[in-house]
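[agent] plan:
  1. take the single chain provided in the ticket
  2. run structure prediction with default settings
  3. attach structure tokens to the ticket
  4. add a short note for the reviewer (M.T.)
[agent] executing step 1
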Amino acid sequence: MISARGLAMTRGSREVLWNIDLDVHRGEIVTLIGPNGAGKTTLVRLLLGIERPTRGHIEKPASTRIGYVPQRFDVDSTIPMSVASFLALGANVTTDEIKRALEETGAARTLDQQLSKLSGGETQRVLIARALLRRPDLLILDEPASGVDFTGEADLYDMIGRLRDRHNLGVLLVSHDLHVVMAKSDRVICLNGHVCCSGKPEDVSQHASYVRIFGPHAATALGVYRHHHDHQHGLTGETEPLIEPATQTPMPGRGT
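[agent] step 2 finished; step 3 output follows
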């Protein structure tokens, strides 16, 4: 869905990124991990075309459509705006499509709520619903669990996995949290200005560079959430039956 080769970014005299090679394929979840200041968000901005690299190039098919959830999303509490109005902004979508996107992200009951009154978890699910309304082939999510508690984080990543399966999406996640994303990813890229290591989570968790960055106990992060869910948690933490993809109607315009 998108590729980068020899990507580098310099700001002033500081080299933020260098020699970055990256691929994201349809149907896989790729997670970028790394310490603060590793260049994760800068790399995302380059991939999105928000900034231009100093060196290297990015390729993606002309047909690739990207849905993006930013790391920060500040809501002006003085401006009254419902979730429905927010999702309709600048988008040629129907009310039914908005409702369906919210249902897919587990946020259906926020439809008429004020955007500024949502919890952190609700806001993230609404932002992912907004990205879905673009009918993307590739989802890029920069710290999607920001402002979400530990239990909500695991459920959020479960939901992202279901969206990947349902719509055959490519997913690029950015996170500095290990315990959940390592267990939810198909492939992990450990970034610290350059690609320190990459591969399956099982391999990356044993790599010397990964251990050096995150510490000797980081390898145990992989197994924490490797189990099957037969339930999900609601927006306020209550347990609900898991809605299987087959019971939901796909977003219009998506292939399988």
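[agent] step 4 note for reviewer: The chain has one domain: 2-247.
[agent] ticket updated
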